[in-house]
Amino acid sequence: MATPTTESAAAETSATSLTGRGRSILATRPLLGWRTVDILTIAFLGAALGIAFWGWGVFYSGPLSAITFGFAPLGGLFAGPWFLAGVVGGLVVRRPGAALFCEVTAALVSMIPGTEWGATTLVSGIVQGLGTELAFALLGYRAFGIAAAVLAGALAGPFAAFYESFTWIQDWSMAWKVAYAGVLALSGAVVAGVGGWLLTKALAAAGALNAFPPGQEHRENRAV
Amino acid sequence: MASDVASREIGAGGGDGAGLTRARTTGGHVTLTGVTWRPFGRREPVLRDVSVSLLPGERVLLVGPSGSGKSTLLRAIAGLLETADAGELKGSVTIDGHIPGSRAGEVGLVLQEPGAGVVASSVGRDVAFGLENLGMPRAAMPADVTTALAAVGLDKSHDTPTSALSGGETQRLALAGALALQPSVLLLDEPTAMLDPGHAAQVRASVKGALTAYPITSVVVEHVLGPWVDLVDRMLVLDDDGRLVADGPVRHVLEQERQRLLDMGIWVPGAPSPSPVMPAALRAGTPGQRASSQDIEATALTIDRTVRLVDGSTRTRTAAALESGLSPQPGSATSLVGPSGSGKSTVLLGLAGALTPATGEVLAKDRPVADLSTSELAAHVGWVPQWSSSTIIGRTVLDEVLVASRALGQETPERVVEAHALLTSLGLAHLEGADPRELSGGEQRRLAIASAILHRPPLLLADEPTVGQDRHTWAAVVGLLDAYRDAGGAVVVSTHDAALIERSDDVVELSPPTQAPAVDQPRRVLAANAGPLALLLGALVAIPAGIIPGHWRTSVVVLAVQVVLAVVALWAGRGPGPRPRGRLKRVALRMVPGLIGALSVGWSTWLLGGNDLTTAFTAALRVLIIVLPSAVLLPLVDPDRLGDHLAQRLRMPARPVVALAAALQRVHTFGEVWSEISLARRVRGLGVDTRRPVALVKHLATVTFGLLVRTLRMAADLAVAMDARGFASASRRTWFAAAPWRWPDTLVVLGALVPIAVALLAGP
């Protein structure tokens, strides 16, 4: 929006390119000054991933439940994709609330056509989004590398398990609940964390994130 | 109730000077001083030291070769350079002495792609978008909307769905949306480049009418100059480097700079059509080994297209009708012509087997073309989509050309040599190692054609191959098509380019198919009278209702109550219109995954919760109690109204809610994008193979990725269009549509609370 912010972005860009690897390019300041393109990108990314969620849900409740039926906590291994929207949203826009907004949008869009869990899909989205958001907040919205992505994906897991302990897994023994949380965290770390980080990189390489820090990182790395 | 809401909003949103700024209708004075813009990651600036002053009310035509920064200059004037891109900006832009965009809607902008700037699901809402951002009271909006629609001659009711408009009507809608804000500067970015001649003329007439009614400063970017010359006074010319090289009265510049303009590839009025440049590679190469037999033919047919809406329902309409058979002959070119909406692209998709005809058939040697395997299809057909950028597969240009050959196992050294030769003759040789996604639009179009024909399928299908091309790329594209035909290929293009139609051997005229008479709207079910929030709340309240019962006996009672409530909610009442059909089936279908979930939860609870059958049964019933209301109520949620209710009832922040609503109303287009990307892969031998799970997963992942890329581009374009209408500063906006809470809402929520009460009372 305002011109001055991009100058600081430019300064920031060159600063990070000087300091080399390991530092993330951050969103333009002020951090809470969401640009229109930030908001729209999160909404559209969420909507597209929501449709993907819906497709994954059909597979999850169909063929996949035949596999995981024998031992439910294993099903948690396949829950990672649900946390993807939050991680990618956070990695792309890098502002407080991006991860939560993206995950909730995706949950909402996947809920409307009908899923196995009905309206609770939305609640799951909020809870998982909070877990992911917490990770980025703990890092002060300053780190958006693969480690941050893994942490964000992993934290969605315990949040999801905590919420589900009131609904779907209410009567499991405590030990199993904890084990389930661990499995979710693992799946989240690998699928949503590493996967989300790779997806963001690929989107940047495809030139789809030019207005965002990952797009700038891609250009900086290529320029070297 | 409605007036109550309106008056409250005057208090909340008024007082930002909207009335004051709306008084002006004169043009703004635009001054650019030394504007240089370099996007990050590019070595060279896109605009270099551009200084120009546009006087109030002046009408300016801005021309230049592709990639010369014309659109960028428009964005600079609008103050939107950094809306969807990041870079380094030097120099200054002012309008009447201040930074552009200090007043919302001061600079109106119409984008090239029809629909790129559509914000809302209905015509009225879309035009009112800028007024909402200004915080105008709701009661005042309809009059302004009607005035703006009249100014562009768009005679549509406010509740016409935006998705029902043609491309030309959509462009006029965008114009109306800009005019509603009484801009002092109007910028039009190739507003007719993607339209057929009839619609293009309508848009120009609208622009002319609007500029007569509002004498504002205006800048039009176009590379077909003829029709605009009488509409403008002044002409600016940008060169390849983004420098301003000519400026003056339009006829004077046209005369003085004629040769330079022709060299740039601009369609100068009166100049003869360029002569197609035949690529040597195809002429001299091994012409169509397999192109001797005519392969694919269509009988008379109709094709239906089904749109999947966000709420899971579908809408089917007849999209194309071919009145007589079509059998593309080797060595001939056929043009499919007709106004937009006549189904030209749909027929091409049918010929490529991506859509199955509702009546008639498309056969490849006696087999339906849709039954061909992906490699068989690749061997039969080449397809050039209208959007070549989102169907790119290869990592380098050379890679991209060789995709189909590789999938067919024909990546021989000779083929690679041919690929080099083809790229050389298309002027793409120096880009062989480049990422194809970074090519210009014209380069991507040539690359797409080259990729479709290198493996020499007997039939080439090209969707609007010359749209938006300048003279040079036109000559290259047409030359390529000609050469392919001369080598024995059959070519079918959909087009409204007169020069291309003239060159074809056969012209097939399509007219918009007659639609089946609209079925009467069925009566509403009772719960459908409630708004989206009440329905959502009703579904969510089921969570406590499911959790409270501690024993399966209570659960059964609660579930029984829910079933009764569901019957009431889905009761259709009396009145006009037919009875709604398939209500039970829809609920049952939505409950199938829920039942699987219940079984799975019950079993896992038995296994991991102490092998107790009672607990397990209770847990399974809990799932059903939680999910049943969702299956009944959620299909009734109207996504188009969700945004209004979230913002006005729940007071959620306006901008994210608007973005969410805009995304929701685009979701139904995702299906089309998905099938286009799928076809682009299938027709190049990379289609889905259900027998190989790994390949299937890879295919799904790739297509999803393509969808994401396209979605992000939509978001970036829409951001520019929305900021041009004052969205950036719209923290306290008003709403075109009311979101009242009415008694059906209360009833739904009360009804949803009954199971909780039952659970509490029936419990131990």
From TrEMBL, chain A:
<protein>
    <submittedName>
        <fullName>Membrane protein</fullName>
    </submittedName>
</protein>
<keyword id="KW-0472">Membrane</keyword>
<feature type="transmembrane region" description="Helical">
    <location>
        <begin position="39"/>
        <end position="59"/>
    </location>
</feature>
<dbReference type="InterPro" id="IPR017195">
    <property type="entry name" value="ABC_thiamin-permease_prd"/>
</dbReference>
<feature type="transmembrane region" description="Helical">
    <location>
        <begin position="100"/>
        <end position="119"/>
    </location>
</feature>
<feature type="transmembrane region" description="Helical">
    <location>
        <begin position="71"/>
        <end position="93"/>
    </location>
</feature>
<keyword id="KW-0812">Transmembrane</keyword>
<keyword id="KW-1133">Transmembrane helix</keyword>
<feature type="transmembrane region" description="Helical">
    <location>
        <begin position="139"/>
        <end position="163"/>
    </location>
</feature>
<dbReference type="Pfam" id="PF09819">
    <property type="entry name" value="ABC_cobalt"/>
</dbReference>
<feature type="transmembrane region" description="Helical">
    <location>
        <begin position="175"/>
        <end position="199"/>
    </location>
</feature>
